[in-house]
Amino acid sequence: MRDLAEKWSVPPDWQNATIEVPGLKTGAVTGLHQRLVSGDLAAWAEASGFDGPAVGAFGLAEGIRYSVRLARDRLLAVSTTPIGMATGWFSEGFAVTEISAGLQVFEVDGPALDAFIARGTTLDPAGHPSASATLSFAGISAIVYRHQRSLRIHIDRGLAAYLWTWMETAAANIAAGSQN
After folding, report:
1. Which parts of the chain fold into alpha helices (H)?
2. In the beta sheet, which residues pair with residue 76?
3. Burial of 166 (C-beta count, 10 Å sphere; 0-12/13-18/19+)
4. pTM for the structure as a whole
5. pLDDT tens digits for 133-148?
6. Rounded to a whole number, what is the largest CA-CA distance in the chain?
7. In a 3-state reduction of DSSP, which class is residue 143?
């Protein structure tokens, strides 16, 4: 039987993986706690203690705990520390699902960030931010927003090697000054 695994890229060691070219630095973010929240988001915010509104595409998230809007009734809660709330259905009208192992997170920073974004999506990062951070980026569904000075991209873990290869090519083209 033919070994189809040889067709797939071997993912790098995400703990140490970086792409660095003049004006752009990319790496994986590990250790984040991520929970998918669906339903009554106001009730969830009150019960969880997560402060502030959920950010949309290219919106600015700050701090060690924040929320990212995915849909009218869905968000992603992100924290560098454990989220002290159980998972499951809550009688207040919302559900919480642990999704940390299912999403790979990348962070991109540098003065060439706008050129990188322009290669990944047709959305204008300087325009009015979208209410939802879910968008097509590099041809795949991603959650995209700003965190501090960087751009964060959350994708399904199974697509991480693909996006990594895409980011290597984009970074090389940006470094070479290519307009492709």
Report:
1. 41-48, 113-120, 160-176
2. 36, 68
3. middle
4. 0.92
5. 999 999 999 999 999 8
6. 55
7. strand
